[in-house]
Design a protein that fits this description.
The protein contains 15 helices and 32 strands. The strands form 9 sheets. It has a 4-stranded antiparallel sheet with strand order 5-32-31-30, with no helix packed on it. It has a 4-stranded antiparallel sheet with strand order 6-7-8-9, with no helix packed on it. The protein is elongated and about 105 Å long.
Amino acid sequence: KEQKILLDTACKMVRWLSARLGPTVASRYVARNLLRLLTSCYVGPTRQQFTMSSGESPPLSAGNIYQKRPVLGDIVSGPVLSCLLHIAHLYGEPVLTYQYLPYISYLVAPGSTSGPSRLTSRKEAGLLAAVTLTQKIIVYLSDTTLMDILPRISHEVLLPVLSFLTSLVTGFPSGAQARTVLCVKTISLIALICLRIGQEMVQQHLSEPVATFFQVFSQLHELQHQDLKLDAVGRSEGQLPEVAFSDGQQRLVDPRPPGGLQKGVTLEMAYTIYVPFSCLLGDIIRKIVPNHELVGELAGLYLESISPSSRSPASVEPAVPNTGPEWDPQNGGGPRDDSHSGTFGSVLVGNRIQIPDDPQPESPGLLGPVPGAGSGGVSSEEDNALKRELPRSAHGLSGNWLAYWQYEIGVSQQDAHFHFHQIRLQSFPGHSGAVKCVAPLSSEDFFLSGSKDRTVRLWPLYNSGDGTSETAPRLVYTQHRKSVFFVGQLEAPQYVVSCDGAVHVWDPFTGKTLRIMEPWDSRVPLTAVAVMPAPHTSITMASSDSTLRFVDCRKPGLQHEFRLGGGLNPGLVRSLAVSPSGRSVVAGFSSGFMVLLDTRTGLVLRGWPAHEGDILQIKAVEGSVLVSSSSDHSLTVWKELEQKPTHHYKSASDPIHTFDLYGSEVVTGTVANKIGVCSLLEPPSQATTKLSSENFRGTLTSLALLPTKRHLLLGSDNGVIRLLA
């Protein structure tokens, strides 16, 4: 019971995460790992045993194609499949065709060695996982998509699987059982596709896989007739005997591979295959499958062996098409050679179905009661649906989102660089004045923006539309009296801090103001604010007289007060940055001077003239690195206590007034709407892109980067924020 609760919780969490992380991250990190997990569900012989659910007749007695003969692995893989399908529900059909299908064809691709040698148990499990997942996918594909990718499914999935199944040399590590399970699953899959696309299409597109499948029986039949006797000599040299088959080809045969073909493909298998396909394909089976009579005979032999008394061999032939009555309402309407169309033993007269008085007696146990047959469906359970609609989700991928997502799932997970492609993903209109600051919340599903129009807005970052869609804010905070120049999130208590000269602390869930801190002297306004990282709950504020004050949002009054000027007159504090550990604060002044302060002791560790112009922005990075930009067109990287800068970038035309960090890279923005990417490591490198007017209108005022999603939020002077990738 505990394990079930744990599994449920894990499933819910994965579903919640895949919705929250957005399509690219969910596909790269969640779906990829779920697909890998799927294979593990089928590894080992125990996972490949059929489960006998209660009250079921023994396997293969009902001549039903869709025999759901679940193996233990299917039960284990249930939650994984449901999570995978949940991602497809969220982001639409492309997930099935562009992410799951290529992975399936990778799973079933023949090994690198030239001949199909012995399978490993992982590869064998992969084959089972691939067939199971393909079956799930096909149910959810729309008709047009299915027809489009049918050749791919045939060549990349069915034929490779069949080449393993029907190879006379390949041995399955888990023995004949694995081969039988794979066989049953593949039959079920091909039958499902046949039912979805109808007889004519089967003849056009699927004749090759179906014929391959039936061909095995001929080969085996001949093998038994030629009765291979191997002399010890030939065997000891490790040579495989060659056998001439009736089609004139010589083939290598391994007579005793573990789990070899002879064991896996028995009379029982012949029966399992022949019945469904003869019902499904009707007369077409004669055109597609050259050796259908042989398989029919074998099926007859099997029927005889399981119920010798009730049937004489003569009665087998007409009975065979009858064995899957529920399949015929779909496509058994055409006239057959025998008078029975196989539909519940009824006879077709013209366009009228006439029910004979004396329906054929069924041998008990051969055909169990057929659930839901009357509806012409497969069965009433939803598991057996032939086709199900993927619900239209608000987050379905299309247009630019789709193009960007396709690119992202192809990028290797080791790639640590930020690539800017200028793909427009979403717009956030609403501010009536220039956007002065944007700050994503740490979870990256919402972001905050502050503007000249004296409001702060909270916006959702969930994907929607095709790149042209506009998103409305979730909440608008309107208590400010002047233009808002700073907004940020205090991570520990989850409050929002915004500043217009006075600092407002408010709750992003309700929009309620929790506290307003006015400047201590109205002639000395606050010029810069920064929030301390979790677990600290303090806000640090600099006023125009170069005083740094710390306030804890949990209690009234001041925590600390430090003078930064120290006799010099370095000008106004333009920017504050707190190190990720919260141990030091750096202040940048309008004269280009920078001061580093230890937050625990209040001592000034260092003060130095960093730039010739006004300092525009400072950020502090892990490993006590500082990045500062100035109006003298430079961007400089410093180590906290080293005298010389480690890197120095000059921008040609305009100063870098806004930048953000991604790993070991700095993404910069200038007033000329140029986005640059500079490296913090050796050797220095710099690349810039000009924003095109269709993707971004107005002048760039603020920029923020979403590190996990690798998107950029760009605020402009016309009040619109855009999300670009």
